[in-house]
Amino acid sequence: MAILDFPPAPKLDIYGELDKTKASQSELQGEAIFNGKGLCVACHPAPYYTDNSMHDLKAERFYKQEMVNGMMMAHDGMIKTFPLRGIKDSPPYLHDGRCFTLEDVVEYFNLVQELHLTTQEKTNLVAFMHAL
Ligand code: HEC
After folding, report:
1. pTM above 0.85?
2. Which of 21, 27, 81, 103 has its Cβ near the most Cβ atoms within 10 Å?
3. What is the second-level CATH architecture of the domain 22-54+77-132?
4. Dist. CA 116 → ligand 1 center (Å)
């Protein structure tokens, strides 16, 4: 992994987690959701926010497979977890760029993981990811 390429993240401590003396309340609450209700940490552990492993998110549970432009919509299957350090600087997101913003990605995982996040929880998760 090209860890030397990550941009500076001045709010992170030596464990790659938020430094409570530097982070905002919204960022800290976002980190709590990331590690708690959102279960993001299951696949995106600090310090690089990836488990370097393959996962099948089974997004096809939520759409009807059909022909689009003469091609059959396929299952995504197994995909390796992307690191989230410096994530704010590298849109679009997911392997095929289907999400243009971090707000879109939070909405995607809210659906795929069936999390029922509140608007405030989504805002805080995005604030947290901006600090990574
Ligand atoms: C079961 C494992 C798993 C969980 C849980 C999970 N992710 Fe992911 N994450 C992945 C995988 C795999 C990808 C790549 C998926 C793809 O490209 O289609 C990914 C991609 C992403 C990306 C896009 C990275 C990029 O460079 O495009 C973001 C942002 C992200 N996850 C944030 C989250 C957040 C926030 C949560 C919690 C709400 C979460 N993830 C929960 C496995 C997971």
Report:
1. yes
2. 27
3. Orthogonal Bundle (1.10)
4. 17
